[in-house]
């Protein structure tokens, strides 16, 4: 191997995704290995890893596989097609903006949930501290 390609195990370690999850994303058409080794092993590039990281970041925000596929299609076309006409480019940018807005809304909801969880944990900690047996002096 020339260092440009990684096997699925290395990709799994770098992305913190399981082998099964990476294979599922491949079966779903979200990511396709860039190559195969002579032995038939999946081989991935840095671009493939970056794509998997986008997917990994979308998942906890509640995006579906179809939404992930749609966003990746839009960004792929924006990145690859310098020859897009102005209307098509604006349509793609509008799709990406909609996903960015949805992500921002989900992040805000998660911030609220985290704040409530921290308040709850603090309440429990304070209760434990108040009710802990006094240490003998």
Note the total helix count: 5
- Sheet with most strands: strand arrangement: 1-3-2
Count the E strands.
Answer: 3
Major sheet description:
3 strands, antiparallel
Q: What is the terminal-to-terminal distance?
A: 67 Å
The shape is flat
Q: How do the SSEs run, as a string of H and E?
A: EHHEEHHH
> How confident overall, as mean pLDDT?
92
Helix content: 55-70%
Task: Describe the structure concisely.
This protein is mainly alpha-helical. It is built from five helices and three strands, in the order βααββααα. The mean pLDDT is 92.
Structure write-up:
With 137 residues, the protein is mainly alpha-helical. It has five helices and three strands. The chain has a three-stranded antiparallel β-sheet. Strand 2 (35-36) and strand 3 (42-44) form a beta hairpin. Helix 4 packs across helix 5 (86-131). The model has no long low-confidence stretch (mean pLDDT 92).
Please describe the topology of this protein.
Blueprint: E1 6-7, H1 8-15, H2 19-27, E2 35-36, E3 42-44, H3 46-58, H4 65-80, H5 86-131
Antiparallel strand pairs: 1-3, 2-3
Helix pairs in contact: 4-5
List keywords for this structure.
137 residues; mainly alpha
């Amino acid at each position: 191997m020339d260092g440009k390609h990684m096997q699925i195990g290395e990709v799994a370690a770098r992305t913190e995704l399981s082998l099964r999850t990476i294979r599922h994303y491949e079966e779903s058409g979200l990511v396709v290995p860039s190559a195969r080794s002579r032995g038939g092993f999946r081989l991935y590039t840095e671009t493939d890893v970056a794509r998997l990281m986008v997917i990994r970041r979308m998942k906890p925000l509640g995006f579906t596989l179809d939404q992930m596929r749609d966003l990746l299609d839009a960004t792929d076309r924006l990145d690859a097609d310098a020859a897009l006409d102005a209307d098509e480019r604006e349509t793609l940018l509008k799709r990406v903006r909609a996903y960015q807005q949805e992500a921002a809304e989900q992040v805000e909801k998660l911030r609220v949930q985290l704040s409530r969880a921290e308040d709850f944990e603090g309440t429990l900690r304070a209760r434990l501290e108040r009710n802990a047996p006094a240490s003998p002096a």
